[in-house]
Design a protein that fits this description.
By secondary structure, the protein is mainly alpha-helical. The chain has helices at residues 7-10, 34-41, 44-64, 69-80, 84-134, 140-144, 146-172, 183-188, 200-212, and strands at 12-20, 26-32. The protein folds into three domains: 1-42, no CATH class; 45-178; 179-219, no CATH class. The longest helix has 51 residues, at 84-134.
C-alpha cells in the first residue's frame, strides 16, 4: 500500500551539501514550501482559503446556470457578506475557470472531429486496398490478407462510432464538466486501500483540503 505524504512532507525538499561535517558526513539541507510556512505562521489563512473556495465553487455553478458577471458580484456580496473588491476578485477567478473549461470543450470537439475524419479516410484506404487485391486474384498472398483487413475495418468503424457518440454528447451538453479536487482524488474513494487510505474519513479530509486549500490575492 503506497504511503501517503503529509502537507509538510510534500512541501519539504531534502538534499545534501558537498561539504561534510566533523564526522565526515555530508551536511543535510531542508527547504520548506512557502505554503507550509505561511500556514504555520498564519493559520487563519486556512479558514480564509476554505471560505474563498466555497464562494468560488458557488460562482462557477452560477455561471453554469447562465448568471451574468455583474449580477453575480452583487449576489455574492450580499450572500457571503464581503465587499465589492473581494466579490469582484472571486467572480473574475470563476469566470476565468469557465473560460478555460469552454476552451477545453471546444478543443476537444475539434480533436474528435479531426480523429473521426482521419479515421474514415483510413477506412476508405483499407477498402481501396481490398478492391486492389480482388482485382489481382492470381496472387494467393493478396487474397489471404483480405480477412485481416476486413477485421481491421470493423474494429476501426466501431471505434469511430464510439467517438461519434462521444462527440454528439459533448456538443449537446451545455454544462461544462468540472471536478473541484481533481477527478483522480474523487475516484480514490472507490478504492481506498489501493490509494493509501485506511478509511473514508481519511479520504474525506484530503478531499476537503484539495477543494479548499488555496485562494488568490489581487492588490
Amino acid at each position: 500500500m503506497p504511503k501517503k505524504k503529509s502537507l509538510y512532507d510534500k512541501l519539504t525538499i531534502n538534499s545534501f551539501s558537498r561539504q561534510k561535517d566533523a564526522d565526515g558526513l555530508k551536511i543535510r539541507h531542508q527547504r520548506f514550501g512557502v505554503e507550509d510556512k505561511i500556514i504555520n505562521v498564519h493559520p487563519g489563512l486556512i479558514v480564509w482559503g476554505d471560505f474563498y473556495q466555497k464562494i468560488f465553487r458557488t460562482c462557477v455553478r452560477r455561471f453554469q446556470d447562465k448568471a451574468s458577471k455583474s449580477q453575480l458580484i452583487k449576489d455574492i456580496q450580499s450572500e457571503f457578506n464581503i465587499d465589492w473588491h473581494w466579490a469582484d476578485t472571486i467572480v473574475s477567478d470563476a469566470q476565468g475557470t469557465i473560460d478555460q473549461l469552454q476552451a477545453a470543450k471546444e478543443n476537444r470537439i475539434i480533436d474528435l472531429n479531426s480523429d473521426i475524419k482521419k479515421g474514415h479516410e483510413n477506412v476508405s484506404e483499407m477498402i481501396a486496398d481490398i478492391q486492389f487485391r480482388l482485382e489481382k486474384p492470381t496472387s494467393r498472398k493478396n487474397l489471404l490478407g483480405i480477412p485481416k483487413i476486413l477485421k481491421g475495418i470493423k474494429s476501426k468503424l466501431e471505434r469511430l462510432n464510439r467517438k461519434q457518440i462521444k462527440l454528439k454528447k459533448l456538443q449537446s451538453k451545455e454544462r461544462l464538466p468540472v471536478c473541484f479536487g481533481t477527478k483522480k482524488l474523487f475516484n480514490a474513494q472507490h478504492n481506498l486501500e489501493a490509494n493509501g487510505y485506511k478509511n473514508h474519513a481519511e479520504w474525506l479530509k484530503d478531499w476537503i483540503d484539495a477543494r479548499s486549500g488555496n485562494f488568490q490575492l489581487h492588490w
